[in-house]
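ok so i was messing around last nite and threw this chain in just to see what happens. nothing serious, just curious
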Amino acid sequence: MLNDKDERGLCPFMLLEPCEKKCVFYRSGVRFNEEKTKSYPFEECAINVIASNLEAMHQRTYMMQKEVGETKNVMAIKILSDMGRVSPEEAAGQALRILQPEETKKLE
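result:
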């Protein structure tokens, strides 16, 4: 927490480069890279830590919304196929275009 520091008044927004241990906003710890399943140590300003955490949360939210949208579209295609409005072959092709857009571009 920020009130762990004994000395107040160091840095608040003078932004020392690089952030020093005596600064109120200095943080050190370990970050975890989800893509590479690798952790690495860091020492930097809490403002940078907050910004990178917000960016990571935004990216996760975006990807989750994208996956939910894709799932919804595939389910709609399946329902139309079951109702006989779309042929099973056409439904499978549309589902592949939604779920694997890079692969279908290679085939065209």
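not much to say yet. The helical segments are 46-82, 88-99, 101-107.
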